[in-house]
Design goal:
Blueprint lengths: L5 H12 L3 H7 L1 H9 L14 H15 L2 H4 L8 E2 H10 L9 H14 L8 E4 L4 E4 L5 E4 L2 E4 L1 H31 L5 H11 L6 H17 L2 E4 L7 E4 L1 E4 L12 E4 L3 E6 L4 H10 L5 E5 L5 H16 L2 H8 L2 E5 L1 H13 L3 H15 L7
Parallel strand pairs: 10-11, 11-12
Antiparallel strand pairs: 1-3, 2-3, 4-5, 6-7, 8-9, 9-10
Helix pairs in contact: 1-2, 1-8, 4-6, 4-7, 4-8, 8-15, 10-14, 10-15, 12-13
Length: about 375
């Protein structure tokens, strides 16, 4: 596989190994894996980005290099890196503050095996009793002809280059948002097209969640209810949508909560009935609204979820109880309809500004303005 980031990888290899660089690349499953995993680097901020497997590999190879094993050749006697140290280090890396332990424990190895089923080596070795970890040194030592090359420093440099590319892409995205915010009065059609592009089914899940929140926050914020503890204490109150944590964090939480109605919202890009029912179970089968990254109609999505559920659980009574907890399904067309409603209500600046604020928080971009 060759993509726009592949020449960056090859240039790093050439800088380290000269003319042997391409041969090292061809002989290394690990470098080919990184090539696959960095294809989103040149696709901008809206492309899907994943850092968990990159960082699981990064922190182990970094530990290997920092302790000088790439020069000493004594890695086989190493007691292994402590999980706590590796976990803390990966969360210090850009975009890594919410990473979980799955990649270190099994996901990197599983994905590597899917790409290279004939390879007998796994990137990570682990001792569950001591909770110590090692990178598989056999994947770092690449033989080309009669010479052996250690690619540990190359692996670090490739992942650093990928991180840098993604950071520049997200910084560019923020700049685009700021520019779009200034065009709201002069060219609203361009703003609409920009927002529509951020809601594309192929967009990064975090950006989709941010844009969904910005639209829905402004949409509901213009609505009012009247309530009180008695007939004599009725008050007017506007609806307020709150974000409950970082986007796409895999933290088991609920994404948005609305006051004072107490509505729950969960953002998802899947139509897996088990995932929906798990979210419903989290909140003791309290009604929940799903914001789905799909252009299919709400009726189609609901039908697909129900069909999957019946196939899995078989008992209609149970399935109906879960399906009854799905208060509403908000898809991409509904989000765009609500954005148009917000735009007519002069709310376009609020949406764009909220996207900028939430994106800076999510992508750890400092506000210098």
């Amino acid at each position: 596989m060759e993509h726009q980031f592949t020449p960056v990888i090859l240039s790093i290899l050439t800088r380290h190994f000269g003319k042997a660089g391409e041969g090292v690349f061809a002989a290394s499953h690990l470098l080919q894996y990184l090539n696959i995993k960095t294809k989103s680097a040149s696709r901008g901020s809206k492309a899907r980005s994943a850092f968990a497997n990159h960082y699981a590999l990064y922190v182990l190879v970094e530990d290997y290099v920092k302790k000088g094993f790439h020069q000493s050749g004594e890695y086989s006697d190493y007691d292994g890196a402590r999980f706590a140290d590796l976990f803390r280090r990966q969360r210090q890396l850009p975009f890594g503050s919410k990473l979980q332990n799955h990649a270190l424990n099994h996901r990197l190895n599983e994905e590597f095996k899917r790409f290279f089923p004939a390879c007998q080596l796994s990137p990570i070795m682990r001792d569950p009793k001591t909770n110590r970890y090692w990178v598989n040194e056999a994947l770092l030592l690449i033989k080309v002809g009669e010479k052996e090359y250690n690619i540990s420093e190359v692996v670090i440099e490739i992942i650093d280059a990928y991180i840098d590319a993604k950071q520049r892409a997200f910084s560019s995205f923020i700049s685009d948002c700021v520019k779009i915010a200034k065009l709201q009065d002069k060219n609203p059609a361009e703003v609409r097209a920009f927002i529509a592009g951020l809601l594309d089914p192929n967009v990064d899940a975090r950006i989709f969640e941010i844009v969904s929140f910005a639209i829905l926050k402004r949409f509901y914020g213009s609505q009012f209810i009247y309530w009180g503890w008695s007939e004599d204490e009725i008050e007017e109150d506007h609806l307020t949508l709150y974000k409950t944590g970082r986007t796409n964090a895999n933290d088991g939480g609920i994404d948005f909560v609305m006051k004072p109605l107490g509505r729950f919202f969960q953002v998802t890009e899947t139509v897996d009935a088990r995932k929906y029912f798990l979210d419903i179970d989290k909140i003791e089968r309290y009604p929940i609204t799903f914001v789905v990254k799909s252009s299919d109609s709400a009726d189609q999505l609901r039908a697909r979820i129900e069909a999957q559920a019946l196939e899995t659980y078989r008992v209609k009574k149970i399935v109906n109880r879960y399906m009854g907890c799905i208060e509403e399904i908000i898809n991409i067309p509904v989000l765009m309809e609500r954005f148009e409603s917000v735009a007519k209500d002069s709310g376009m600046p609020d949406v764009v500004n909220e996207i900028v604020v939430q994106s800076k928080i999510e992508f750890n971009i400092e506000d210098n303005d």
